[in-house]
Amino acid sequence: MKIITAKQYLSEKEDYSTSQTMLEDIDESVLEIIKQVKQYGDKALFQYTKQFDGADLTNLRVTDEEFKEAEKQVSDDFLSALKQAKANITEFHQVQKEHSWFVNKENGIMLGQKVTPLQKAGIYIPGGKAAYPSSVLMNAIPAKLAGVENIIITTPPLSDGTINPHVLAAARVAGADAVYKVGGAQAIAALAYGTETIEKVSKIVGPGNAYVARAKKWVFGDVAIDMIAGPSEICIVADETAPPAYVAADLLSQAEHDESAKPICITMKSKLAEKILLEVEKQTAELERKEIIQQSLKQNGRIILAENESEAFELVNEIAPEHLQLMIQNPSEKLHYVKNAGAVFLGNYSPEPLGDYFAGPNHTLPTSGTAKFSSPLGVYDFVKKSSIISYSSEALKEASDTIINLANTEGLTAHANSVQIRKEGSYEKLQD
Ligand SMILES: NC(=O)c1ccc[n+]([C@@H]2O[C@H](COP(=O)([O-])OP(=O)(O)OC[C@H]3O[C@@H](n4cnc5c(N)ncnc54)[C@H](O)[C@@H]3O)[C@@H](O)[C@H]2O)c1
Ligand SMILES: N[C@H](CO)Cc1c[nH]c[nH+]1
Ligand SMILES: [Zn+2]
């Protein structure tokens, strides 16, 4: 991790984004995997699961016995924690539910918008470097609240062919309909195109590594996707009221996700920057995942010195971080300066992991600058809308000349005729 100025940060930003060659290599593998899954279905899934996860599987779908076995392995305390988190996530997301609406206008006109849940949703749950039962709740609960009939989860198995029991327990608590043991690009291809065992879904959601993210990008269009959720990011704006030990702990909480995670702190105080750096070094030495953390700090860890708060917020909006923590005086009064961020945590007692697990808002958030144009995962991701139009004969007659005029101007006389024929009432005349 190093201390740099805002100018230096902006000039180096390009250098440490994923290199084009790396991306091309990943795409080459991903496209081949998608092709094989489309062609060979389950057979390709078994083969890739052996190759990438070291698991020699005989079944892809997690059986009832496997769920029961998993339940025995998780503690009551963990189950109770899951249920408390579920209650908070449900309470928060309940408010996001959208309802159909209809308006009756004069002359027998009725217009509206019908909200319909997606029939099938596929959730990817990462399983490579760590298992994420919390992501199961964050993705499945909004789908359930939206009314999705069939919620299926895919996640890579461990090399002994099992799925982390905590992930399976979370799938049960969240009410998922099925869990399949497959990860990476092959899981995304299976969800997008279907195989003998895995049903094709309407939308794929959930985070994952670069293979998962690129696969989602490639299948988009054949299936809907939520977003490209890349490596975790945290950006903390800290002033003299921020305890350096807390700032360091929060930066490290995201660094431990991935070697390419981005822990960034912006401060106006150079002394504070030095104290935070010391704390980061001290705390890293004590942490279990220190190798991953050190890589992340080396690649992407930055403490940026801003001239003043206004420059700090300009930078925040340019970075558009997944998570933004405002550890400054009166943070809620500064919220209006934030234009681009996935989630904003206010004050010294709202650390990012509170949002990862418990508070209620979703932890699947836009990353890699996409908070400039996208939003957290929500109930709205699992519904679609249809417009409803109903006119009476008088209402259509009244509007017919206008419509015919517009249609003829576009040279679309069949369109004009569809209205003209009703204006003349030729069908009704025949009935008489
Ligand atoms: N945004 C969020 O809400 C959120 C939540 C949890 C995790 N995450 C992120 O998700 C990511 C999880 O990544 P992960 O790797 O631990 O798990 P993962 O499940 O995304 O990836 C593991 C899979 O990657 C595939 N793979 C690995 N190496 C490959 C190769 N050389 N060629 C082709 N395929 C290959 C394999 O199929 C393997 O099963 C991390 O970056 C983490 O930060 C994000
Ligand atoms: N911080 C991650 C999203 O970037 C989500 C997560 C899951 N578990 C712990 N954290
Ligand atoms: Zn996290």
Automatic annotation (TrEMBL):
Gene3D superfamilies: 1.20.5.1300, Nitrogenase molybdenum iron protein domain. GO terms for biological process: L-histidine biosynthetic process. GO terms for molecular function: histidinol dehydrogenase activity; NAD binding; zinc ion binding. Keywords: Amino-acid biosynthesis, Coiled coil, Histidine biosynthesis, Metal-binding, NAD, Oxidoreductase, Zinc. Zn(2+) binds at Q254, H257, D356, H415. One of its GO terms (cellular component) is cytosol. Binds 1 zinc ion per subunit. The active site is at E322, H323. NAD(+) binds at Y124, Q186, N209. It catalyses: L-histidinol + 2 NAD(+) + H2O = L-histidine + 2 NADH + 3 H(+). Substrate binds at S232, Q254, H257, H323, D356, E410, H415. InterPro entries: Ald_DH/histidinol_DH, Histidinol_DH_CS, Histidinol_DH_monofunct, Hstdl_DH. Pathway: Amino-acid biosynthesis; L-histidine biosynthesis; L-histidine from 5-phospho-alpha-D-ribose 1-diphosphate: step 9/9. Pfam families: Histidinol_dh. Its EC number is 1.1.1.23. Catalyzes the sequential NAD-dependent oxidations of L-histidinol to L-histidinaldehyde and then to L-histidine. Belongs to the histidinol dehydrogenase family. This is Histidinol dehydrogenase. It comes from Virgibacillus indicus.
